[in-house]
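seq:
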Amino acid sequence: MIEANRQAKGAIAAIEVRKAGLAAEKTALEIEKATHTREVQIAKRDEAAAQLETFRVEAPFAGFVTKVHVTSKGAAVRQGDPLIEVVNTGKVKVEGNVTLADVSSVKPGAKVVVSLDPEKHGAEAAARTYTGKIVFVDVKANPVQQNVRVWAEVDNVDNALRANMMPKSMTILPGGTE
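struct:
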């Protein structure tokens, strides 16, 4: 319109040129507003995703759910409330006792071999040995039995070992620390 008025003076009324200029300015401002609104909506989306992530519960290991404490959808829970019980059977804790005379040579990290009794657990399970390592040596001695309690973390091959099973033996290998 401005160019048309330059070539032919007064071809388009000044008020029409002014209206077109204001419409163009209005359109530019609407585009700017839409861009800003889009950025705000993206920020809200990202905030909602972050909030949703706080409701996710993930165990730090693979395992089996053995007990569910919260059974209804949407139930309110507080931080620290038990939700589920997950058990990892890939490694099991085997407890034993070491005599006071031998305890000075038993250190965390020492390799162990566990075997099962064929009469209690079957020939197939007893034919295998299960390896692991000492993870705990108690600081207190049992004065009556003259021994010290130890724990080993043992690889549970094919999930053959179960809770409360009594192994036939746990042999601590000399000098075998990792």
